[in-house]
Structures are given as structure tokens and as C-alpha cells.
Amino acid sequence: MAARIEGAYESARRAFASPTLALLHKQRAPLVVTLLGALFTADRAAVPVADAHTEVGEALAGLRSAGFDDLPDASARDLCRQWVAESWLVRQVADDGTEEYRLTAHAVEALEVAWRAGGPRTRVTRSRLRTLLDAVEHLAQEVDPDVSARRDRIEAEVARLTAELEHLDAGGAAPTVAEDQYVEEAENVLFLVRELPADFARVAESIKGLQREVVAGLRQDERPTGEVLAAYLERAEHLLEATAEGRAFAGAMRLLADAERLDALAAELDLLLRHPYADALDPVQRAELRGITRRIETGLDAVLTQQRRTSHIITTQVRHHDPLRDRQVDDLLREVVSALAAWVPSSRRGQDVTALRRLPRIDAGRLRETTWVPARSAPPADIDVWDDDAGADASLAGARAWGGPHYARLLAHATEHAAATHGGPGGAPADELDVAAVFESAPGDLRRPVDLLGYLELALGGPGTDAPGLPAESTHLGRLAGVEPEDAVDATELSVVTATRPDGTTRRFAFGRTTLRLTPPEGDR
């Protein structure tokens, strides 16, 4: 009996020494709970430091103007610093470089205890017992190794669901719930959800504590640098498995990482809120139900952010770890502490201290040297010359030779060809020209495959009429040539020409006989 009482008393003392109960036991606990509850909400897990100081100051001013005289004289900044020192707030640097406050797990638990004590009494007797029974039944089924018993349970469940399905197929009505049961079940859900913020905060704080432990152990580690790098980098990659809270969170992550499950949860909550019985809940409860999915996502994001930050800090510390330098700094600090311990008892207040007149000479020993290696200063090897690059013409003229048709030159040659073949010098050009004949009579640089396409475009109504050197009033080929495209091609006769590329290779092309009209008809003149 005495031993049990002593153990219970020690447990109670440890509980009341925790920051959670210390906050609730303070003289100004109502003020702290009110300010923290107003500053941090389910949608606002972190508050910038400057905003927090401003809002706390405005809240204190509002309370003073309302007639409350039992408020502290300290400023909002001092109050926030005090809350950080008492482990109710944590001050950290966000990813964008701004400083922000977050509630600790102890503060979240204290706010939840205060809310339960001052809020309405929840009616969760039936639903809470059912939650307990379901949890015990599920755990017993998971740990039971009896295969036959598991088969019997599955068959019984299948039979029950089959009977329910047959009832619905026969036109039976779906089961309904009473309004009291709806409200009771909803309050039980809210009761369970209110535990989540403290759980998420506890996991994040366990990772933060592990970070301090790892960094402190790294500074005291005297193993070779290679072993230290391997061990601590491995530890940084598996932070969640290093603590009991982290392992539990990893299991929850496997459950909540499925996006379809979260979408289904949001759809089910929407169904609950659209039910007529939802009007029996007060607006605060409906808002909490609506924000369950967001609260879960916010908690997950906070833990994962802390994990990434801790991994980055540990990795940075390991990469810049210098055991020799750390040991030298530790030895120097110990010498300073020893010298102070020896000097302080024999000194008096206001005693002069002899200043250091000159710095002592450092005993550098043998400096590390690196010899110059000529091979490391050699220029890089020449770039390989590929076979297809040899003799390539990279000039502007060479690039233009492989370019598109020169429409102005094509029309000029067509005009010269018409004058030479029909009218002679100074003679009138013919109304219609054979594209194949015009192309075959062209010089070598105008007998490329693209030039043949250019003549065909001019004959059939293509973009060549917009080329420089053509009449400004010519807006399309039909107007220039005075014919429709179907009138310019005679599919019964076949023309064959030989085109020459700029590299000297040739290609033969066959196409229906096509005519080019250089002068418009009488009606268009």
C-alpha cells in the first residue's frame, strides 16, 4: 500500500511539474489561455513574431479598456518571451526566413483541458463506448493467430452484409438514426479530433529534441570523420523511426498518405453537414467538422516540415564537422573555466586585471603541403571533329542556298523566258507559260527543289505573291495569274524535271502539267 501511494505521489508530482499543468496552475492562467487561444486557431498554426506581439498588445489594451485591472504590466514582447521560456511557445525560423511562434504540445494540451472544463458537457456515452469496443475488437482480431477463427469472422461478416444487400434489393428502407444519436456521434468525432493537434505537436517536438541530441552527440564524438559522416547521415535519413512518437506518426502517415482516403473523408464530412440534423449542432461544432480534413493536413505538414528542417540541420552539421577543431575549442573553454575557478576565490571586487600586452606565438607545427602537379594544370583536350562537320559551309550565302524559294528572281526569270521564247528581245511575253519549261531553262542556282515548289505556288495561288519585288496590288496568286488553281493544272499531261541541290545532288520530279500566267485577263486590267 505504501509503495503504491509513493509511486502515485511521484507520478502526480511529475505531472504537475510539466508545462501543461504549470500553465493551468498559474495565477494568470485564464489570461494566458485566452490570449493563446485567440492567437492560434485550427487554421493558424504559426504566427509571425511581429504579428503576435501586435495582436497580444491590442488584446491587452482591449481588456484594460474593458475594466480588467488584474493584468500584467509587462509588454506583449516580454510576455511572449516569457511563454517561450516556460515551454508554451516555440520560436523558430520559417522556410522564407521570417521568425514565427508555434504552440508547444504542452500548450495545446492545456488549451484543450481548459476548453473541456469550461465548454459544454459532451454527450458521448454510447458512441465513446462503441469506439472503445470497436478498438478492442479490432486489436484482438489483428493479434489472434487462429486462422479458422478469422475465417469464421469473415464468413459471418459476409453473411451479414449479404443479408443487408438482399434486404435493400427487395425494396427495404435504409436504416436511419435519431437526432440525438447524430449529435452524440458528431460530438464524439469532435472529441477525437481535438486530440490531433497535441499529437502532431508532440511528434514535431520529439524530432526537434532528437536534433539537439544528435548535434550535441556529434560535437562530443571522437571517432574518425568518415565513421561520423556515415553514422549521422544515416540517422538523419531515418528520423521518424528514432522515437516512439515518430514511429507512431509513420504508421499514421501510411494510413493518411492515400489522397483518395482524404477525398473520401471530405465527401463524408460534407454529407454529414448537409444532413438536416446538422442544424442541431452549434456553429462552432459545424465549423470544426468542416475543418477536420484541413486540420489533419496542417498537422501532417507541420511534422514533415520539422523533419525536413531537422534533416537539413543535421546534414549541414555533419558536413562541416571538424573533430579536431571541436576538441580544441572544448579544451580552451575548460582551461578558461579552470582559470576562472582558481582566480575568483582569491580576487576582490573591483580588482584590476592585467591586460594581455601581446598575443602569444602559435605553435603551428608542420603545415600541410600540396605539391604542384603539372598534369592538373593542362588545358582540356580539343573538341572532336565529326565526319559530318568536315567541309560544312557555315556562311550566310551557304545558309541562303539551302533556304526557301526566291520568288522575285523566279518571276524575273519567267518574264525573261517568255520574252526569249515567244517575243524575243523587247517582244510581248506570252499569256501562259509551262512551269516545267521555265524551270528547266533556269540557271543552276534557281533549279533547286524548293524553286520548283516556288513556281508551283506562283501558278496555284501560294504565299509567293507577298514576296519582295512583286506588285503591291497583288494580294493572292489568283489575282496575279488571273486563273483559278484548278484551271492551272492539267492532270492529263505529265511534266518531268530534274532539280539540283546546293551540294550537287539531283532529284527528278513528276507533276501534272502546270501553267503560269504573267498577265491578268482583260477584265482584271
Automatic annotation (TrEMBL):
Q: Which domain of life is it from?
A: Bacteria
Task: Name the InterPro entries for this protein.
Answer: DUF3375 (IPR021804)
Which Pfam families is this protein grouped with? DUF3375
What's the name of the protein? Uncharacterized protein DUF3375
From what organism does this protein derive? Luteimicrobium subarcticum
